[in-house]
Amino acid sequence: MLTSAWDALGAEPLDLWPEALRGDIEEVNARVYDCVNNGVYRAGFARSQRAYEEAAHALFDTLDWLEARLARQRWLMGDRLTEADIRLFTTLIRFDTVYHGHFKCNRRKLIEYPALWAHTRDLYQTPGVAGTVHLDHIARHYYYSHESINPTRIVPIGPRLDLGAPHGREGLGSGFPGLRTAARA
Where is the GST C-terminal domain (predicted)? Predict the structure, then answer.
């Protein structure tokens, strides 16, 4: 869908699911969805200590795996942006603001993972992405709407994240043909 859904509206062609990488993308997507995207929810809404710890350990084991992968390459699939990076980004961009505290995913903050934090900033700085991210709205939604987790509905004032700081990932790969990061735009 991300590859072609907007073509009829005049969007520039962007193949985020190249045929040659589809098997690898699906393999990474499966682990990221189960342990990261859904993992934060499994930890946050756990009804027992055991369920929480299983979800949290799987989450952080996967973040460690992703950190090692992204320490040696710019994108999850190597030298090009794919759907796998976009799927991961949706959780990473919310991690320190929401999941670390609200969902008790607090072994480490995202900013304590150098490659994952740089990867998040790299995607955030991709043209058109920053305008879709409103961390104040995200925080208010999560902290205010989950009364069972946050009965006082108090929304924290932080953390303050510098998503515009240089990410330094340009040397790890070319990105996507025709796609420029904001730092180079």
Answer: 18-142
Token digits for 14? 């962007």
Q: Which residues share a beta bridge with 78?
A: 75
What average pLDDT does the segment 54-73 reach? 98
Is 78 strand, coil or helix? strand
Residue extents of the structural domains in the chain: 22-145
Query: Is the four-CA dihedral 70, 159, 98, 141 of positive or negative sign?
Result: negative
CATH 1.20.1630.10 fits 22-145, yes or no: no
% of the chain surpassing 70 pLDDT:
86
pTM (2 d.p.): 0.87
CA atoms 57, 71, 38, 99: torsion sign = positive
Q: What is the pLDDT of residue 54?
A: 98
CB 74 within 8 A of CB 126: no
Which residue in this structure is represented by tokens 């009804």? 47
d(Cα 72, Cα 97) in Å, to the nearest integer? 26
Q: Residue 50: in which H helix or E strand, if any?
A: helix 49-72
Given its phi and psi angles, is residue 74 left (phi above 0), alpha (psi -120 to 50 degrees) or beta?
A: alpha
pLDDT at residue number 96: 98
Render pLDDT for 85-121 as a digit per residue (tens, 0 to 9): 999 999 999 999 999 999 999 999 999 999 999 999 9
